[in-house]
Amino acid sequence: MISSVHTFNPRSVQAFNGNPGNYWFDPSSFQQDPCIGEGSCSIGFYGTYRRNSFHGPRHSNFDLALEKSTNLVGEQTKLVFRAEAFNIFNHAEFRPPAATSVLSGTFGQIGGTYAPRILQLALKLSF
User: Could you give the CA distance from residue 24 to residue 12 in angstroms, rounded to a whole number?
Assistant: First the structure.
C-alpha cells in the first residue's frame, strides 16, 4: 500500500496518457479495484487508500476590512465608511480535483480556482 501521493504544481501543464492538463496528482498511479466492476466487493469496501491519504492544494486567503465612523449633526447622525478586500494579495487559490472516479477523463485535474481579489466599498448613514 502506498502511504502518500506525489503532487504536482497546478500552474504548469502535465500530460498523462496523452491528456494534457493542470494535474494535482498522477492519475495513472490509481486503478479501479477489480471487485468494483464485478460487484463482488465486501460490504464496507472503500479501496486500498487510507482516509486522508492526500489532500488538495493548500488554501490560504487574506481578507482585510477598514471602517471609519464620523459623527455628523450632533451625536445622533453617523456616517460610516467601510472598505473591504477579499484575497487582497490576489494569490491563485486552486480548487481540489473535482472528479472522484478513476475512470473519469478529468481525474486528478484541477478544475478551477477560488474567487480572485474582490474590493468592496460601503457607505452607511444612520440617524
Answer: 10
